[in-house]
Amino acid sequence: MKTSKAILALLTAAALAAAFLTTRWTGIAGATDPENLSQAVVLRDRDAGVVALGAKVYASECAACHGDGLQGQPDWRVPGDDGLRPAPPHDATGHTWHHDGDALFRLTKYGLAEVIGDPDFATGMPAYEGVLSDAEIIAVLSYIKSTWPAEIRAQHDKLEKRQ
Ligand code: HEC
């Protein structure tokens, strides 16, 4: 009798701990798709196959706005007449490299509004959930990273290890 009570108490504690961890983790990740909550995304900019796929995805999905040479749109710091910000560069002159791979992944997949938690946030950046697979999103971001100068990549590596 005593033993079964102890076991019950243990099971309850375990269930509570699991529930707590799940809630906390969902909160941190801030994303809605449970399959991506298990581990943080790390970019694979030294994997030639991944980078080659990413270059193709970039050309077909991103270059129209972010530029063939990742240079962004002209005057990208100044909002247009519609109040929306132009597409920033993805090269070393922009701030893409200030964000770790996981943040870039979530931003590209779920969109800016979802990531900052404001559904009304107006932005010209599309969300790629259902358009690109997770592997394609990781590939395109890995390609972008592969074009940065060595010291910027090294700084970004440090960011990624912080996750
Ligand atoms: C229709 C135009 C358009 C396309 C296509 C587009 N973007 Fe963007 N992107 C934008 C705009 C505009 C912003 C700035 C958003 C803002 O600040 O509101 C942006 C911002 C971003 C940012 C944030 C950069 C930062 O420094 O915070 C990332 C990352 C990004 N885009 C990745 C991509 C990727 C990867 C693709 C292709 C899969 C892509 N974008 C395709 C318009 C576009």
Element layout with pairings:
Blueprint: H1 2-29, H2 48-66, H3 101-110, H4 112-116, H5 134-146, H6 150-161
Helix pairs in contact: 2-5, 3-5
Bound molecules: heme C.
Heme C binds at residues 61-62, 64-66, 85-88, 94-96, 104, 107-108, 112, 123-126, 128, 140-141.
Task: Please describe what this structure looks like.
There is one protein chain. With 163 residues, this protein is mainly alpha-helical. The protein has two domains: 1-30; 32-161, Cytochrome c-like domain (Cytochrome Bc1 Complex, Chain D, domain 2, Orthogonal Bundle), CATH 1.10.760.10. Helices cover 53% and strands 0% of the residues. The protein contains six helices and no strands. The chain is globular, with a radius of gyration of 20 Å. The chain starts with a helix and ends with a helix. 22% of the residues are buried. The structure holds heme C.
CATH topology label of the largest domain: Cytochrome Bc1 Complex, Chain D, domain 2
CATH architecture of the largest domain: Orthogonal Bundle
Shape: globular
Mean pLDDT: 85
Question: Which percent bin holds the helix content?
Answer: 40-55%
Name of the CATH homologous superfamily of the largest domain: Cytochrome c-like domain
Bound small molecules, deduplicated: heme C
Unreliable stretches, pLDDT < 50, 5 or more residues?
19-36
How is the main sheet built? none
Q: Looking at the chains present, what oligomeric state does this protein adopt?
A: single chain
Percentage of residues in strands: under 5%
User: What is the overall number of helices?
Assistant: 6
Strand-pairing-aware structural class: mainly alpha
Number of strands: 0
**Whole-number tally of structural domains:** 2
Distance between the termini: 46 Å
CATH class of the largest domain: Mainly Alpha
Based on CA atoms alone, the radius of gyration comes out at: 20 Å
Order of helices and strands: HHHHHH
Keywords: Electron transport, Heme, Iron, Metal-binding, Respiratory chain, Signal, Transport
Cofactor: heme c
Organism: Roseobacter ponti
Protein name: Cytochrome c
